[in-house]
Amino acid sequence: MTAIADPVARSSGPAHRTGVAGLGAAAVGAAGVLVLVVRPALPLVLLAGSVVLLAVADLTWRLHRQQTAARVLEAQRLDLFSQRQTTADELEVATRMLRARAETMTSVIDAVTEQSIIGTDRDGLVRVWNPGAERMLGLPRADVVRTRSIIDFHAPEELDTEELDAEEPDAGGGTPFATLVRVAREQGSDVRDWTYLTADGRRLTVSVAITPRTDDDGEQTGWNFVGTDMTEVRATERLKDQFVSLISHELRTPLSSILGYLELVLDDPEQPLTGEQRQYLGTVERNAQRLLRLVGDLLFTAQVDAGRFTLQPAQVDLAGIVRSAEETARVTATARGVAMSVDVPDGGLVVSGDALRLGQACDNLVSNAVKFTPAGGRVALRLQTAWRNADGALVDVPTAGATPVALLSVSDTGVGIPNSEQGRLFTSFFRASTARRNAVPGVGLGLTITKAITTAHGGTLDVVSAEGRGTTFALALPLPA
Amino acid sequence: MDAPARVLVADDEEDIRHLVALAVGKAGCTVVAAVADGAQALTVARAERPDLLVLDVSMPEATGLEVCLALRADPATDDCRVLLLSAGASPDDVARGLATGADAYLPKPFTVAGLVRQIQLLTAEHPG
């Protein structure tokens, strides 16, 4: 704007001066006419001269004006030209930047060779097909982009349109593609396994993240599908599952024989054993039981990992469970010289849960405490009603918004767990350095299982420990309000 | 005094079969046969009409579950008592077993004392 206005402003100066000069010439002409009236004898030359003078003055003035206008126009033309040049330059810079950005994006997408990145329009027509997709599905970009729908690469039985709500016309009206993006449309994104069909007829289990793609105005332009081939991973998981259940079955059967026949020998009133025989066979039985527990723990861990573990809920008195855990551990504790104490409410404390699993969780905590406490130490079991504050902290006195919990704490004066290892305590097969150093037997499944059971009951399991001083596990389960 | 209850034992593991047969004896019952697969169990059950069958779940030819369903589907054998034994100890396994019409389900490893008690319970009201 300023660039256009300036030349005009500058030109107004000279134009004004030209006007004054024109007026001067006209005054000279008028004087000549006066002379003619006073002195009628003067020749006509004077008159003619005056006319010429007047005409010249007029012409001069017009010429000036035109020249000025021409200069203004030239200035404006130059200005416009330079503006056009600037715009063109700016446009070129912007284009270059856009191209660079697009190239960066493309090169990033092209660098992804292990994941498929597929972009489609709103109806599923493929627009982006990276080398990962080429590799995974066996078709080059040129054969797919703008000609194929992503649906062509999905197992059709997984895109059953029946379950789709027909009342959602904007959802694509029950097409397989609408089924594919339904969850992503409802929740903004979706990650799950789908079966991809490759060009050579293979079926791949692919974990696909689906997200909508939008333009600068927030308008949806299409969908992105980022896929990771999980075929081998899932097959391995299945194999592990089968292996664990096979092993568990195959180990249980011989253990049934071992324990069954041992029982017959140990309990035969007609052929009593000597004290020594009884002791030896008792050792055999204890170890067979240990093996059996290990098999059970392995199977249970596999079920937890696979998300296939169910609870049989009932009303359970935790006081009974705590007392029986103490009874189970008492023999070992006494033998090790560890004192035990139990503090439970007289009236019991009833929660809703699976009695068998809660018993298992409690047994794990108590047997751990005994196992990790040296002779002369103490293990204290305490069951009480407590409160969980709105911020999740467990407190004895409730504040606003607090909910009641049954709190079981198992404290020992044992070897403790180093701070740095406490975060990994609930990981399968993890064993604290203090456990390894003190040669405490175990495989590192007990706490994983206890945590899984607690979580499945809507509870929490926390640990406070100081190395060399002891450990307290706090298991809190929700109580009916 | 009643004649002892007659019990058919079926398990593909010889050691377990023998152990179960011992428990049957301890429970005061008679073993009519101890067989190693489901097909034999069904044949003997139809011929001998035992009071109780102690069936392993995973057996060749026919599983204990299949044997139980076949017994329940046949009016000639539908009043036999059935005790299932299985290495599958999960609640789902138990529910699946009892859904076939079995009277009881004992996960392995069982204690001999527990098995004896179950056999006594299931044969307490036997018609013979």
Label this structure with key terms.
heterodimer, A: 481 residues, alpha+beta, Beta-Lactamase, 4 domains, six-stranded mixed sheet, five-stranded antiparallel sheet, 10 helices, elongated, B: 128 residues, alpha/beta, Rossmann fold, five-stranded parallel sheet, 5 helices, 20% strand, globular
Outline the fold blueprint.
The complex is a heterodimer of chains A (481) and B (128).
Chain A: H1 2-38, H2 45-111, E1 115-121, E2 126-129, H3 131-137, H4 176-187, E3 190-197, E4 203-214, E5 220-229, H5 231-266, H6 275-305, E6 314-317, H7 318-336, E7 339-343, E8 350-353, H8 355-371, E9 378-388, E10 394-395, E11 403-412, H9 433-437, H10 446-456, E12 460-466, E13 470-478
Parallel strand pairs in A: 7-9
Antiparallel strand pairs in A: 1-2, 1-5, 3-4, 4-5, 6-8, 9-10, 9-11, 11-13, 12-13
Chain B: E1 6-10, H1 14-26, E2 30-35, H2 38-48, E3 52-56, H3 64-73, E4 81-86, H4 91-98, E5 104-107, H5 112-123
Parallel strand pairs in B: 1-2, 1-3, 3-4, 4-5
Helix pairs in contact in B: 1-5, 2-3
Explain this structure to me?
The complex is a heterodimer of chains A (481) and B (128). Chain A has 481 residues and is of the alpha+beta class. Chain A has four domains: 2-107; 112-229, Beta-Lactamase, CATH 3.30.450.20; 234-305; 314-478, Histidine kinase-like ATPase, C-terminal domain (Heat Shock Protein 90, 2-Layer Sandwich), CATH 3.30.565.10. Chain A contains ten helices and 13 strands. In chain A, strands 7, 9, 10, 11, 12 and 13 form a six-stranded mixed β-sheet that branches. In chain A, strands 2-1-5-4-3 form a five-stranded antiparallel β-sheet, with helices on both faces. Chain A starts with a helix and ends with a strand. Chain B is α/β, with parallel strands linked by helices and 128 residues long. Chain B has one domain: 3-Layer(aba) Sandwich (Rossmann fold), CATH 3.40.50.2300. Chain B has helices at residues 14-26, 38-48, 64-73, 91-98, 112-123, and strands spanning 6-10, 30-35, 52-56, 81-86, 104-107. Chain B has a five-stranded parallel β-sheet with strand order 2-1-3-4-5, with helices on both faces. In chain B, helix 1 (14-26) packs across helix 5.
